[in-house]
Amino acid sequence: MGRWRVAGFRAAGVSCGIKGKGEKDLALFVSDLPAVSSVVFTRNLVQAAPLIWAKERARLSGIRCIVVNSGNANACTGPEGIRSVSRVVGEVSRVTGIEVEKILPSSTGVIGVPLPAERLLRAVPRLVKALSEDGFEEAASAIMTTDAYPKLTRRVIRVGGEKITLLGVAKGAGMIAPNMGTMLAYVFTDARLTAGDLRRIHRRCVEETFNRIIVDGDTSTNDTAAVVANGASAARTLSGEDLRDFELCLRELMEELALKIVSDGEGATRVVRISVEGTSTDREAERVARSVGTSLLVKTAVFGADFNWGRIVAAAGRSGVRFDPEKMEVFFDGARVFGPGLVPDPAGAAKGKRVVKKKFYEVRVRVGKGKGQYHVYTSDLTLDYVKLNSEYTT
Amino acid sequence: MGRWRVAGFRAAGVSCGIKGKGEKDLALFVSDLPAVSSVVFTRNLVQAAPLIWAKERARLSGIRCIVVNSGNANACTGPEGIRSVSRVVGEVSRVTGIEVEKILPSSTGVIGVPLPAERLLRAVPRLVKALSEDGFEEAASAIMTTDAYPKLTRRVIRVGGEKITLLGVAKGAGMIAPNMGTMLAYVFTDARLTAGDLRRIHRRCVEETFNRIIVDGDTSTNDTAAVVANGASAARTLSGEDLRDFELCLRELMEELALKIVSDGEGATRVVRISVEGTSTDREAERVARSVGTSLLVKTAVFGADFNWGRIVAAAGRSGVRFDPEKMEVFFDGARVFGPGLVPDPAGAAKGKRVVKKKFYEVRVRVGKGKGQYHVYTSDLTLDYVKLNSEYTT
User: Are B109 and B241 contained in the same domain?
Assistant: First the structure.
């Protein structure tokens, strides 16, 4: 099997003319067999037309086809936007023979501009004809907006001597791009498992991966994460230990996609894992980690390779979580640079100054209270981020 | 009376050598009479040494002297930092004859560097000698860190035919500056009122002014707002209607200081008032306003004069407050540019595109639910902000 194949799935990416200049902007993913699926959408109250349509019309546990356009978010486009989704999905259904309710639509791009539905409709027959088991790279390119490169990853595990493959395709990070960015992340697998198991596993994995990356803290109107399992593998139906192995593998694959997304955040040059431990609860650790991970002062210091533990201490202190600051400690890749006793630890300073020059490192904040822990991945705030996001014109 | 005078108060600003190059870095404010006062500190769990000292040792309702150094935050400096505060306050007390517990110390500057207490101690006699009723401008300069200009403002009201003066002095905005910014805001007035009334009024005014400005969302370890009232005016003791007039005047003065602070946020070129109305509660409106006001995508769009209502809609949608997005409307200086029905309103677009070029404008978000309302002031996120905050080296 080729590098980006998974049994029983085909994909395609073509240009339908939304972006112009012949750039690919329309992708299709199809399982040749019926499948079970799990889909998680953005928690933003404002949702784009394809999400509104899918929640009303699609059977989210039985998706076997995903159609995605880039270059236009089809968000804030009113009833006309929803009609456009309906027409595009209808055309995909007509040409592929797959029932409408088993098709998941996604869009990513500018908000508030009507979707040029005619262009998509005209391209659908060509798109379906282009479907190929080697089409995933082209499809991954077609869903990109301001991504620097297409994002694919693949894992294989063995269950009872038989291979199961997982293939992940993703784009963009949160609203990293001006009205254009959206996180889309699809996993296709030939594993056989129940829709209920898949849903439970997928939700946990989303919480532990995509929900822990911070580019700018904004969530888009279009974010969608999905996994489709068609059972084409010869392996037995997953349960018990097998199911746990599969979950670990899925989580690892999704974490890799999440890291690809955050390290390709607009203008990003570094990624830092912010780990917090010792709070009363995991929820408290999350609040501290997000306070540090979203701090503009922390993110600009990361960009400038500035050994600036003071900003981390201040961001942890303002998180709203109660702890004894006298017991707080901060580590850079394992070297303690601050605390306890609210004073810097000069022993770690030399290492800390080296660590901040790395492309990827860990900042660990320990508050001596309980067993709570959490981590997030954050990118740096760069001059390019501000340039890209201020110079864009609607 | 001179422009920056208030009866019964004197001030001074000198150079004690923390900043170097002869820059002023030590300020003193003194009431010649006993006074009542109200002091509000940062809510950050991590608090600088002068705050720890003041909470333990000062009588915060009876402050009549404030000593401030810039160039060093005296934060994360351990027990030695607290000893330094004690020594400086002791020396101010010895030279002025004012009891230690009536002196409020403040510091602003780098975190984690020991305060050079000897330099401050040597300068205190000179500082006290320099006290003058015309010393407020020099004192306002001496408390600056990266501020572009000293911040003073003054108001006069009449009570029963007698004048009451309020003089405000402030610096910096949140942690706008790398380990260096802190908001300090002092108001000196010759009004006569009870410590209880002053405290109640001051807390409300802080909530409605300083707590509503957003530069980068970080709060410092040193933020301090204080008001000192010495009763030197011939006006009667404030109560009833007089007290309400005084509160309005104090709030107006503090709002002016707050706007000076946010518009002098590092690199800031524009200030936007984000007003939210129609939520169930004021608290909900606050969450929506802060979600929009802290959004990096909104702040970069403001910088680029990009007419980008989509980012405002998305930021409101992700605030966590439940409302019907179909009813949401967005206005730029009164012109509706979005909603209802989740679609743009083309009628307002031409005005909106003009409004975003202004130095100061209002974005109003209306969600048709209840009577809740709130507003914040936010500055833009600029290339200079990232440059200043990434190139600083600890």
Answer: yes
Residue A296 and residue A183 share a domain: no
CATH code for position A310 = 3.10.20.340
User: In this structure, is residue B4 part of a structural domain?
Assistant: no
Q: Is the pLDDT of residue B1 over 70?
A: no
Nearest CB partner across the interface for A218, out of B315, B322, B387: B315
Q: Is A296 in the same domain as A378?
A: yes
**Which regions of chain A are under pLDDT 70?**
1-2, 173-181, 216-218, 266, 391-394
> What is the total count of domains within chain B?
2
Is A1 part of a structural domain of the chain?
Answer: no
Residues A186 and A287 in one domain: no
List the Cα angle B394/B183/B288 in 5-degree steps: 105
pLDDT at residue B330, rounded to an integer: 97
Domain for residue B291, yes or no? yes
Question: What is the distance, to the nearest Å, from the Cα of residue A3 to the centroid of all Cα atoms in its chain?
Answer: 22
pLDDT band with cut points at 50, 70 and 90 for residue B391: low
Structural domain boundaries enclosing B24: 9-263
The predicted structure's pLDDT at residue A239 = 96
Same domain, A113 and A80: yes
Helix and strand numbers (H, E) in chain A are: 11, 15
Give yes or no: residues A372 and A253 share one domain: no
Is this complex's ipTM strictly greater than 0.90?
A: no
Over the stretch B340-356, which tens digit does the pLDDT of each residue have?
Answer: 999 999 999 999 999 99
- Active-site position among B182, B189, B209, B279: B182
Q: Which of A246, A263, A280 is the C-terminal boundary of a domain?
A: A263
Are residues A222 and A114 part of one domain? yes
Across the interface, whether the CB atoms of B218 and A46 are under 8 A apart is answered no
Same domain for B330 and B184, yes or no, is no
* CA distance to partner chain B, nearest, from residue A340 (Å): 10
Closest CA of chain B from A380, distance in Å: 10
Residue in A with minimal Cα distance to B45: A317
Q: Is residue A191 within 8 Å of A164, Cβ to Cβ?
A: yes
pLDDT at A2 (0 to 100): 63
Last residue of a domain, one of B263, B279, B303: B263
Q: Is the pTM of this model over 0.90?
A: no
Placement of tokens 């940062």 in the chain: B42
For residue A275, how many other CB atoms are within 10 A of its CB?
18
Between strands B26-31 and A103-110, the pairing is unpaired
Assigned domain for B3 exists: no
Which pLDDT does position B262 carry in this prediction? 86
Give the tens place of pLDDT for each residue, B4-58.
999 999 999 999 999 989 999 999 999 999 999 999 998 888 899 999 999 999 9
For residues B315 and A45, what is the distance between their CA atoms, to the nearest angstrom? 10
Helix pair angle (B296-303, B309-317), 10° resolution: 160
Q: Please identify among residues 270-299 of chain B the ones whose CB lies closer than 8 Å to any CB of chain A.
A: 294-297
Q: Is the pLDDT of residue B180 over 50?
A: no
Q: How is chain B split among helix, strand and coil, in percent rounded to 5?
A: 35, 25, 40
